[in-house]
Design a protein that fits this description.
Pfam family, one (chain A): zf-C3HC4_5
Protein name (chain A): RNA polymerase II transcription factor B subunit 3
GO biological process, one term (chain A): regulation of transcription by RNA polymerase II
Radius of gyration of chain B: 31 Å
Largest sheet of chain A: 2 strands, antiparallel
Strand content of chain A: under 5%
GO molecular function, one term (chain A): zinc ion binding
Distance between the termini of chain B: 81 Å
Subcellular location (chain A): Nucleus
Number of helices of chain B: 33
Helix content of chain B: 40-55%
Strand content of chain B: 5-15%
Oligomer: heterodimer
Bound molecules: iron/sulfur cluster, zinc ion
Structural class of chain B: alpha/beta
Number of strands of chain A: 4
Chain lengths: ~350, ~800
C-alpha cells in the first residue's frame, strides 16, 4: 500500500542516471529521483537541494524554462512519467467532472458523458498547445457553472468511500473474532479430551473393572464429545456470521433512508394543499371603502396591517362552504353508522 | 454379456462382470433417473470406465431423450484409453444387435496434438500453435483472401467449409489417431472437425479444461444442452483444477511484454486510422450498442474469451471511457504501469480484490466497471485491427484477463505479492499471484447448467468433502469395496523400525539419523524381497534429495544397489520419462528396479505400475503440502471461514488423497497383486481417511508394525501369491458370469420383497396399534367431554 520504499535498479540503465548531474544509482544506491508537476522533469534529490534551496529558479533541463519551487518536488508514483502526468491531470479533471451514474437518466447518457470526459483528458494530455488551452477553458467553465453540483457529488463520493471503509473494517473484525472463537473451541476440545483420558487412566489404575471395557468406553466418550462439540459450535457461529453481515447491511440502508427525510421541509398541514381552488387571489381589488383611507396611509399600515391579508380573508369567507352539500354528507355519514350498530348488536348476541 | 438393470437392457462387452461394476452401474442409473449429481468411488483396476460407458451408452440408446455424454478426463493418454474402450463397446453392441447404431463418438484435445499443418504442428509450445493457427484461420483472413489478397491460410481448415456442416465426418467412434488419419486422408483439420461436430455427436471425450476453464469453456462447450450427462473421471484433484483455471500469476517480465503489446496496439491503431478508419468507426458504433452485438460476430476463433463474465454484463454497453480504441489502449497502459509500480514494493502483501480496487482507483482513477470489460474489449479490438501475430499479445491478454477477474469477483479471491522467490533470496523476482481460493466458482456454471454431473475416481475419500468444497448436492454418494477371491494386495502401516524407534517424516524428526536409517533399512529389506519393480514415494523433492544424500552417506544405497537398479524422478519431464523407460526395461528383464519419486509429482498421477512394474509401493512419510506457502494458507483460511473445513482436516484430507493415489498405482486389475506400505507413525490415526477399499483390506494385525514384522508379513503374502491361482476360483465371488448375476438379482429381489413385506407387516401392525391408540385417545376425549357436561 505504501509507496515503494527502496527502489531497485530498473532494466533501462538510462532510468538510473540523473539527467542533471549524471550521478548513477548503480554507484549510489540511495539516490532518489524527484519530479515537479510543473514540467515533470526528473532529477535527483541532491540536485533539487543544490539548485532550489535558495528559492525558485528555472528548471535546469535545457529548453524547459519553467520556474520551479522546491516545495513542489515529490517522488513519482509511476515509473513512466507520462503516466504520472496523465494521472495528475485526471485527478484535476476528476475533481470537477465527478458526476455519478445515478445522475443520468439512461446508461447511454452516462456512457456518452464518460466518453466526453475522456476526450477532454486526452486533449489535455496529448493535444497541441491550442487544444490544451481550449480544454482548460472548457474545464474552468464547467467548474464555475456547476460549483454546487460538484460540491454535492464530492460529498456523496466521500460518504460512500467512508461507508465502504467501515464495512470492510467491520468484516475484518468479524473474521478476527471468528478465528479467535475457533481457536478457543479447539483449545477447549483438546482439554476435554485430555480430561477424559486422564479420568480413564485413573479408573484403570484404581478400579478392578475390565480394562478393555474402560478403554473402549473412554474412547467412545471422547469421540462423542468431539463430534457433539463440533455440531454444537457449528450452529451459533453460523448465526453470528449472519448477524454480522446483517448489521453491515443495515448501516448502509439506514444512511440512505435518513438522508432524504432530512432534506424535506417541515409541513405543519401534513401535506394538505391550501391554495384556493375556486378563485384566484389577485393582488389588487377595486374597493371604495379601502381606497379612501387605508391605501397609501402609513398610519394605517404601521401596525402590520396588510391589505393582502385582508383580501385573502374576505375571499375565503365569501367562498367557504360553497362546495359543501349537507344532505349528501349526512347521507354518507349515516350508512357506516348504521353498519356499526348492526355489528354491535351482533356482538351483543355473543355474550 | 447382456442383462437388465430394472427396465434398461445393457450390453456389457465382456463375458464376466465384477460385482462392484454391477453396483456401480445401478447407482449410475439411479443418478441419471433422478437427474442429480453424484460422487462415486470405485476401486482402481475394476473397470470403471467400461462400466460407465456401457451403462450410459445403453441409457442413451434406450430412452428417447438420447442424452449426450460429456466425458472429461485428465490426460491425453486417459482420453485415448476411454476412446478405445468406447470403440470396443460399440463394436460389441453392433455384433450383438446385428445392426450399426446411429452413433458418433469423438475426442478433443488441443491443437498441438491434432494439428496437421506442416509448419504449425512443428511448434513446440501449445500456446504458439494455438496462436499461429488462429492467425491462419481467423474470419478476416478469409475475407481478405476472398478479396483476392495474398494471405497465408490453412488448407486443412478451409476444406471444411466445402463439407456439410453437420456431417464433417462419418458416424462411428473416432480415436484421436483415427481422426488424425482421416484428416490426413481427406485433407481436413481434425481439431476443427471435432470441435464443430461437437453438437452432432453422442459422446464427447475431452479434457477437464474444456469445461472448467472459463476462458475455453465459453468457446468450446457453449452449445451443449442442459440434459447432457457430464462425467469427471479421475476427479480426486478436481478442486485444484478449478482453482488453477481461475488463477493467474503476473511477473515483471510479463508486464514488460504487455507494455510492448500495448505500444504495438497503439501504433496499429494510428495506422488504421490513417488508412482505414471506417473499421474503427464500425467497431465503435457496435460497442455503443453493447457487447452482445459485437459478440454476434464472434467466431469460434476469437483471440481469447472472457473469463466467466456474467450475462448481464454482456448485455450492457461498454463503458464510455473505453469505447474508443485509443482511450482503451491508454487505459491498459495506465493499468500496466500501476501494476509495475506495485511490483516494486519489497515486502509481502496480501490483499482482497476490493482493497486492490480502492487503491487502484486512488492512484490511477480507474473504476471497477471498465476494468470488468477489459478482456472483452481487448478481444474486440484485436479482431477489429485484424492482427495476425496474435502470440505477441499473449501477455497483454493475461493482464486483461486479470483485470476482468479482479473486478468481477469480490469474494473467493486474493492477491498476493511475493517480492522474493524464497525467504533467503537476495535478488528480487516479484510475482503477483491472483489466486482463486474457492473451487466452487469455476465449477458452479457446470453444476448450474447440466442436470447430471458424475464425479468419480479410484480414490475420492472422504466422499463428503467434495460436495462441501465444490458447493453442490448429491443424489448418490457411494464408495465400493473390492470383492476379491484371494487377498491380492497387502496394505500395511509401518510405524517404527526394527529398533522400535518410531519413523515419521514430521518436521521435527525427519532429518534425524535414526529415522533416516530406519527408512533406509525398510527400503533395503523390501528391495530384497520384492520381485521386479518397486516404487517409493516421498512427500517432496526437497525431502527426497536430502534423504537420498543421507542414505548415500550411510551406505544404504550401495546395499540396495545389489538387488535393484535405482532410478529417480526429477522435476524435468524429459529426464523423468527416460528414467521411467529404463525402469520398465529393468522390470521386464528380471533385473528389477526401484523408482524413487514424489507423491505430488508426475509419476504419482496417471502413470500405472501394473503387474511386474510395481509389486511394492512404499510411501515414506505423509505427503502433506508445503504449509508455509502463502497461497495455501490463504486457501485454508478461506475454507475455514466459508465452508467450515478446518485447516488440519483439509491438510490431512489432501495428504491422504495423494497417499491413496500413490498406493493405487500398483494395483491395476483383479489379477494383479502388490504390497502397499505406509511408513509413518502418523498414518495410524489417518487410516480412516483412506478409500474404503484400501482401509477394509488392512487387517487389525497389520496397522502398527515394525520393519521386521512387516517384512515377515510381506514374505508370507508373496508366498501365497506364488501359488497357482485359477480363474475358476474367482467365479461367483469376484467375477460373475451371467448366471451369477441372475442369481444375485434374484436374491436381491427376494430380499427386496422380504423387506417390503416386512415393512408392510410392520406398517400393518403399527397401524393397528396406532389405531388402538387413536381410539383410546378418542375415548378419553369423549369421556372428558361427558364429565364436563356433568360438571356444567
Ligand atoms: S486449422 Fe487445423 S491444421 Fe490448420 S493450423 Fe489450425 S490446427 Fe493446424
Ligand atoms: Zn542530480
Ligand atoms: Zn523542466
Amino acid at each position: 500500500m505504501s509507496r515503494p520504499s527502496k527502489p531497485s535498479l530498473t532494466d533501462n540503465p538510462l532510468d538510473d542516471i540523473c539527467p542533471v548531474c549524471k550521478s548513477n544509482r548503480y554507484l549510489n544506491p540511495s539516490l532518489q529521483f524527484l519530479i515537479n508537476p510543473e514540467c515533470y522533469h526528473k532529477m535527483c534529490s541532491t540536485c533539487v537541494d543544490r539548485i532550489f534551496t535558495s528559492g525558485p529558479t528555472c528548471c535546469p533541463v535545457p529548453r524547459c524554462g519553467k520556474t520551479l519551487r522546491k516545495r513542489g518536488f515529490h517522488q513519482a508514483f509511476f515509473g513512466d512519467l507520462k503516466i504520472e502526468e496523465e494521472c495528475d491531470i485526471r485527478k484535476r479533471v476528476g475533481d470537477v467532472f465527478n458526476r455519478r451514474q445515478e445522475d443520468f437518466e439512461t446508461l447511454r447518457h452516462w456512457n456518452d458523458y464518460l466518453q466526453d470526459v475522456e476526450d477532454l483528458v486526452f486533449d489535455l494530455v496529448k493535444g497541441s498547445a491550442k487544444t490544451k488551452r481550449r480544454a482548460e477553458e472548457t474545464l474552468e467553465e464547467y467548474r464555475v457553472k456547476n460549483l454546487a453540483v460538484i460540491e454535492e457529488n464530492k460529498k456523496a463520493g466521500q460518504e460512500a468511500a467512508s461507508l465502504e471503509r467501515q464495512r470492510e473494517k467491520a468484516e475484518r473484525e468479524a473474521a478476527k473474532q471468528r478465528r479467535l472463537a475457533m481457536a478457543r473451541e479447539e483449545e477447549e476440545e483438546k482439554m476435554d479430551v485430555e480430561k477424559m483420558k486422564r479420568s480413564a487412566l485413573d479408573r484403570l489404575a484404581n478400579s478392578n473393572e475390565d480394562a478393555n471395557a474402560i478403554a473402549r468406553q473412554a474412547q467412545k466418550g471422547i469421540l462423542k464429545k468431539t463430534s457433539a462439540r463440533r455440531t454444537l459450535t457449528d450452529a451459533p457461529t453460523n448465526e453470528s456470521t449472519t448477524s454480522v453481515r446483517d448489521s453491515g447491511l443495515s448501516i448502509r440502508g439506514l444512511k440512505k433512508k435518513v438522508a432524504p427525510v432530512v432534506e424535506k421541509e417541515y409541513d405543519p398541514f401534513g401535506g394538505i394543499d391550501l391554495t384556493p381552488t375556486r378563485y384566484i387571489l389577485q393582488d389588487h381589488y377595486e374597493n371604495d371603502y379601502l381606497a379612501g383611507f387605508v391605501k397609501g396611509q402609513p398610519t394605517a399600515m404601521t401596525g402590520g396591517y396588510s391589505l393582502h391579508e385582508y383580501y385573502g380573508r374576505s375571499m375565503l369567507e365569501a367562498f367557504s362552504g360553497l362546495g359543501v352539500f349537507i344532505e349528501d354528507e349526512i347521507a354518507s355519514r349515516n350508512q357506516p353508522a348504521a353498519m356499526a350498530t348492526i355489528k354491535a348488536e351482533a356482538r351483543d348476541d355473543v355474550f | 454379456m447382456k442383462f437388465n438393470i430394472e427396465d434398461l437392457p445393457i450390453l456389457f462387452p465382456y463375458p464376466r462382470i465384477y460385482p462392484e461394476q454391477y453396483a456401480y452401474m445401478c447407482d449410475l442409473k439411479k443418478t441419471l433417473d433422478a437427474g442429480g449429481h453424484c460422487v462415486l468411488e470405485m476401486p482402481s483396476g475394476t473397470g470403471k470406465t467400461v462400466s460407465l460407458l456401457s451403462l450410459i451408452v445403453a441409457y442413451q440408446q434406450y430412452y428417447p431423450e438420447h442424452r449426450k455424454l460429456i466425458y472429461c478426463s485428465r490426460t491425453m493418454s486417459e482420453i485415448e484409453k476411454a476412446l478405445a474402450e468406447l470403440k470396443a463397446l460399440m463394436k460389441y453392441r453392433e455384433e450383438q444387435l446385428g445392426y450399426k447404431e446411429d452413433f458418433r463418438g469423438l475426442g478433443l484435445t488441443s491443437r498441438k496434438n491434432l494439428c496437421l499443418h506442416p509448419l504449425v504442428k512443428r511448434e513446440k509450445s501449445g500456446a504458439v500453435v494455438d496462436a499461429r493457427c488462429r492467425s491462419l484461420t481467423a474470419g478476416f483472413v478469409k475475407e481478405k483472401k476472398d478479396r483476392g489478397e495474398d494471405v497465408p491460410v490453412c488448407i486443412y481448415h478451409d476444406n471444411l467449409d466445402h463439407l456439410e456442416p453437420h456431417n464433417l465426418i462419418p458416424n462411428g467412434v473416432w480415436t484421436l489417431d483415427g481422426i488424425m488419419r482421416y484428416g490426413e486422408e481427406h485433407k481436413q483439420c481434425p481439431y476443427f472437425t471435432s470441435r464443430r461436430m461437437m453438437s452432432f455427436c453422442n459422446v464427447i471425450i475431452y479434457s477437464y479444461h474444456y469445461l472448467l476453464d472459463p476462458k475455453i469453456a465459453e468457446r468450446v462447450s457453449k452449445e451443449l444442452s442442459k440434459d447432457c450427462i457430464v462425467v469427471f473421471d479421475e476427479a480426486h484433484n478436481i478442486d485444484n483444477v478449478c482453482i488453477e483455471s481461475l488463477s493467474t500469476d503476473i511477473t515483471e517480465d510479463s508486464l514488460r511484454k504487455a507494455t510492448r503489446g500495448a505500444q504495438n496496439l497503439e501504433s496499429k491503431i494510428s495506422e488504421m486510422k490513417d488508412n482505414d478508419s471506417e473499421k474503427l468507426m464500425n467497431e465503435y458504433a457496435k460497442l455503443v450498442e453493447g457487447l452482445r452485438d459485437a459478440d454476434e460476430a464472434r467466431q469460434e476463433d476469437a483471440f481469447m474469451s472472457n473469463p466467466a463474465l456474467p450475462d448481464d454484463l454482456l448485455n450492457e454497453a461498454v463503458p464510455g471511457n473505453i469505447r474508443r480504441a485509443e482511450h482503451f489502449v491508454a487505459f491498459l497502459k495506465r493499468f500496466i504501469e500501476y501494476l509495475k509500480t506495485r511490483m516494486k514494493v519489497r515486502q509481502v502483501i496480501s490483499e482482497t480484490p476490493l482493497s486492490f480496487l480502492a487503491h487502484l482507483k486512488e492512484y490511477t482513477f480507474i473504476e471497477k466497471k471498465p476494468l470488468r470489460f477489459c478482456a472483452e474489449r481487448l478481444t474486440s479490438l484485436v479482431r477489429t485491427l485484424e492482427l495476425t501475430n496474435i502470440e505477441d499479445y499473449q501477455p497483454l491478454q493475461e493482464v486483461a484477463t486479470f483485470a476482468t477477474l479482479v473486478a468481477t469477483y469480490e469474494k473467493g479471491f486474493l492477491l498476493i505479492l511475493e517480492p522474493y522467490e524464497s525467504d533467503t533470496a537476495e535478488v528480487p523476482n516479484p510475482v503477483l499471484h491472483f489466486t482463486c481460493l474457492d473451487a466452487a466458482i469455476a465449477i458452479k456454471p457446470v453444476f448450474d447448467r447440466f442436470s447430471s454431473v458424475i464425479i468419480t475416481s479410484g480414490t475420492i475419500s472422504p466422499l463428503e468433502m467434495y460436495p462441501k468444497m465444490l458447493g453442490f448436492e448429491t443424489v448418490v454418494q457411494e464408495s465400493y469395496s473390492m470383492t476379491l477371491a484371494r487377498r491380492s494386495f497387502l496394505p500395511m502401516i509401518v510405524t517404527r523400525g526394527s529398533d522400535q524407534v518410531p519413523v515419521s517424516s514430521g518436521f521435527a524428526v525427519r532429518n534425524e539419523p535414526s529415522v533416516v536409517r530406519n527408512y533406509g533399512n525398510l527400503l533395503t529389506e523390501f528391495s530384497k524381497l520384492t520381485p521386479d519393480g518397486m516404487v517409493v514415494f516421498f512427500p517432496s523433492y526437497l525431502y527426497m534429495e536430502s534423504i537420498i544424500s543421507m542414505w548415500q552417506g550411510m551406505g544404504i544405497l550401495d546395499e540396495v544397489w545389489k538387488y535393484k537398479l535405482i532410478l529417480v524422478e526429477t522435476p524435468d519431464a524429459q529426464e523423468t520419462s527416460l528414467a521411467l523407460e529404463t525402469y520398465r526395461t529393468a522390470c521386464c528383464n528380471g533385473r528389477g528396479a526401484i523408482l524413487l519419486c514424489v507423491a505430488r509429482g508426475k509419476v504419482s498421477e496417471g502413470i500405472d505400475f501394473d503387474h511386474q512394474y510395481g509389486r511394492t509401493v512404499l510411501c515414506i512419510g505423509v505427503p502433506f503440502q508445503y504449509t508455509e506457502s502463502r497461497i495455501l494458507k490463504a486457501r485454508l483460511e478461506f475454507l475455514r471461514e466459508t465452508y467450515r473445513i478446518r485447516e488440519n482436516d483439509f491438510l490431512s484430507f489432501d495428504a491422504m488423497r495423494h497417499a491413496a493415489q500413490c498406493l493405487g498405482r500398483v494395483l491395476r486389475g483383479k489379477d494383479d497383486y502388490g504390497i502397499m506400505v505406509l511408513a509413518d507413525k502418523r498414518f495410524l490415526k489417518k487410516r480412516n481417511q483412506l478409500p474404503k477399499w484400501i482401509n477394509q483390506a488392512i487387517l487389525e494385525s497389520e496397522v502398527n508394525l515394525s520393519t521386521d514384522m512387516a517384512v515377515g508379513s510381506a514374505k508370507k503374502f508373496l508366498r501365497g501369491m506364488a501359488q497357482p491361482f485359477k480363474n475358476v476360483d474367482q467365479e461367483g465371488i469376484s467375477t460373475w458370469s451371467l448366471a451369477d448375476l441372475e442369481k444375485h438379482k434374484e436374491k436381491q429381489d427376494e430380499e427386496n420383497i422380504r423387506a417390503l413385506q416386512e415393512a408392510q407387516r410392520e406398517a400393518m401392525e403399527g397401524g393397528a396399534i396406532q389405531r388402538e391408540v387413536d381410539m383410546d385417545e378418542f375415548d378419553d376425549d369423549e369421556a372428558e367431554a361427558g364429565m364436563m357436561e356433568l360438571d356444567g
